Structure formats: structure tokens, C-alpha cells
Please model this.
Amino acid sequence: MNKEPLINFIQSNLPVSKQILEDIAQHFEYTTISKNEYFLKEGTISNNYLFLAEGFMRAFTHDTDGNEVTTYFYPNNRVVFEASSFFMRTISTENIQALSDCKGYSITFEKLNMLFHSVPAFREFGRAMLVKEFVAFKQRTLAMINKSAEERYANLINTNKEIFQYAQLKQIASYLGVTDTSLSRIRKEFSKK
Amino acid sequence: MNKEPLINFIQSNLPVSKQILEDIAQHFEYTTISKNEYFLKEGTISNNYLFLAEGFMRAFTHDTDGNEVTTYFYPNNRVVFEASSFFMRTISTENIQALSDCKGYSITFEKLNMLFHSVPAFREFGRAMLVKEFVAFKQRTLAMINKSAEERYANLINTNKEIFQYAQLKQIASYLGVTDTSLSRIRKEFSKK
DNA sequence: TTTATTTCTTGCCATTTGGCAAGTGCATTT
DNA sequence: AAATGCACTTGCCAAATGGCAAGAAATAAA
Model:
């Protein structure tokens, strides 16, 4: 079983020896998730931390009216986890679903903590991933406040074009904070330019 | 120097012995910040992690047009830090400013890491604070997407009334993602009910 | 291929929010 | 007390976005 993608990813975020990397990677296990299946279901406690080597996923929750709201998209070469449920052991209000067939390497909460304990340097990695997600959310909040829907759309298409390849309009719309109707129009306007 | 508030706060988030608590608290130092002064200035690397015992603060940044956007309010009995700059050692794009005279206990990045190392259980505390902030931002993003300005206002006044005591309208407006004009109107509508 | 189903687009109009400028109220200064 | 400066409010109108329903296009099923 080839864990190169995982090892490369960790290495690019944490400068440690090849030996330690192997040691860390060994505790992750190969995982596949078929298109439309769930990595996490709301109502459960998340117990898996995943490095997504191939594929595409999205997180979503339901608003007070019961509508799906996409909260995040996960391209490959990223870690996928729901911070609050996974680390705080609380019941998740979010779902994480594969939008294409996915392959990756996952580790349980218990094992991850064991690794944090036995490989102190790896804690930095864990923290970095957490902070990274945090920053992404902060920026998104900020964009929601001071960018127009069209600007948010433009930014998304410029930085994450692959989203449009995997997700459907409605899912992207709720992520951008507009209705699918509006997104359709924005798209039209945008294509004129 | 009485560190009771700090000790009580840590204890409420982490079940460890009185002895360990004292040990942790001993590394924090008493800090005061006068009204309108800065705990963090954009352009610098944040090096302090603060437990705010008394007072009220806000974080803000500037949007692309140069306008101030309030990104967070910090009531007392909370920790105050800018995750990305503090933990990743990056230059902050945010300011954190005292909205009233503040008192608290702060610790440097270096010392905090030393504590995480020497008191393993305390790492859980650090992670919990990070996740807590994260969750708060997620919820705010969600609210920006699927709540009207009036609902966001109603929620804020119900859960954080003290904000209205310390912050001015314009600061609250940018936090809620509306103009001060609109907030003024929302407020008027709201008071009718 | 034909039919059925789902996704996306569009027209029409309503609602929300913004922009600007004038006005009011309160506090500080002189 | 008068003048100045902020913070906040309000009126008027414009711009952005939403809601609904019908239609077009794409996709899946028969």
C-alpha cells in the first residue's frame, strides 16, 4: 500500500525526517468512499481524520428551515475533518459527503492522539491544519460581509475551479450565500465579460 | 497578585489538580490595557495569548476599500488571541483593541509552548480554545448566509447584550455585515416589537 | 429512442439592503 | 452659553438579491 501522497503532504507542512514520516503514516489506513457516500453523518460523533488523496468532498448542514447549506468543499491533497465533533467529541451537526469516488488515508481520534503524544513534532502539524481551517472560515466570513455575491463567485471560480466540476449549482449557491436562482444569473452576467 | 479568575477559567475547561493549575497560572503575567489601546496591531506578529479577566475588546481588520470591519468581540472571562498570527507566526492582518479598560493575564508564544510541552493535559485546553473560536466563526458564517440582518441583530442582542454597552453602532454594524444606516433602521424596527 | 426526472435558466415582481445627504441629539471644548 | 465634533437617525431613491413558476437543458431510466 503506497502512502506517498500522505507522506508528501505531511512533509510539505512539517519538516521532519523520512523515518518519522514513515512512522506517522503507518498509523493511517487506506480508505475509499464512493461517490455520494458519507464520511460523516450529522447526529454522530466524528471519529475519523482523513487525508484525501483523490476525489472531492463537501460538508453541509441544515438551516432552521431544513434547507441544505454547503459549508465547505474539500479538494484532494487536503485533510478532511470536522474540528468540533472530532476534537471535542460532540455530536456533529454537519455531514461530509463524497462528490466523487474518493481515496485517502484515515486515522481515528484515539490513534491520532497517541501519535500527537509519541511524536511531539506532529502536534505542530495537527495545530497547523486546525489553524488553516480556521483561517479559511474567517476569510469566508469576511467575504460574506464585504463582497458582493458576484465578487464571491469570481473569487471561487478563480481559486477553486474544480468545485464547478464536481458540485451542483445549488450546492455552490448555498456555499456562496445566494439562492441558486441568483447564482444562475450571476453566472450569466459573468460569462458576458 | 491574585490569579483566581484565570485559575477558575482553566479549571472550568480542564479537570486537573489544583497544583497543576497553580503551576500553569504562574507562567501568566498580569496585564492591563487601557481603553482604546491595542493588544495586537496589524502588521505585527502576535506574541501574546491573553486571558481577559475584566473589560471588553474587539478585533477588526480593513476591507479592500480601507473600511474597518469588526471581526470579533471579546467579553471578559475568555481567552483573546489571533490564532493565525500567534500560532503560525505570520504577520497579522487584524487589530485587537480594548473597548474599555482591561485587566487580564497573558503569556508569550514561547512560554505557552513550553507549558504545552511540560503539562500535556494543558494541550487539551489550548486545543479546546482553538476549536471554540473556530466553531464561533463557523456559526457566524452560517448566520451570514441564512439569516437576515434583523435576525442576526436579534441573535446578537439576545446572546451578547454587553456588546451594545461597549461598542459603537458602526463597529457592531460591520460585525453584523450591514451598514450603520441599516443597523439603525433594524434597531428601530426591532424596538417596535 | 422515448420517457421521466433532475438540474439549470429566465421573466416578473417583491423585499432587503445600500448610498447619500440632511437633520437631530448629546457631549466636549472654549 | 455658544460653537464644534461625533454618533446616530431618517428620507429618498437605487441596486442587489430573493421567491415563484414556467420553460429549457441535461441526465438517467425505461
